[in-house]
Hints:
By secondary structure, the chain is α+β, with helices and mostly antiparallel strands. It has helices at about 1-35, 45-70, 75-85, 110-115, and strands at about 95, 135-145, 150-160, 165-175, 185-190.
Amino acid sequence: MIRKVTFILLLVIGVSCNQTDNQNTTKQESNQDHKITLFSSECITESEVVKAQEEWGAGIVKIGKVYSEGGNYKQAAIEHIQNLYGYDLSSVLFKPTLASEEQFRGTFDAALSYFVGGNETYQEDKGFALAPYTKVRWENSGIINNSCNMAIAMGNYYFTKTDGEEVKVEYTLGYIKDATGKLRIVVHKSALPYSPE
């Protein structure tokens, strides 16, 4: 009698465990079916990097133009950052040129402050993109894209002021490709060239 009861209990436990395993497997498969993909599996090409650079430059010119014309320059900067930086996908390592007190801008709001100013947390920010500039010219020293899912570009970019003067700035930019196939910046380091005293 005891053996029979033990056998029945083992049988019930085995069926119960099996049902739980099946439910867990179904849940895992369901989660995988509904998993949101943030990044593209396609490799990044050099021409995509160049296109992203041109788009970034055009965005800087646009912010300054909107500001000069009395428009909503803050919204233009918001769209620029949302469109070209990966703050919604990943950590972003951003060290802007004209930041010395709060050198690193790891959040969306910190980046926005650098571009247009007006954030009490970053009182040194005067609004880099409000200059305005009429053009941004890129001179890549090199682009590395052999890791497929990330590309790094380094070189100089030249910001043309309204009087025609160019301001030379050194940069390093790291790009990833989002699920829509658009390149997004996740590393941005820029600095004025070294000038010996």
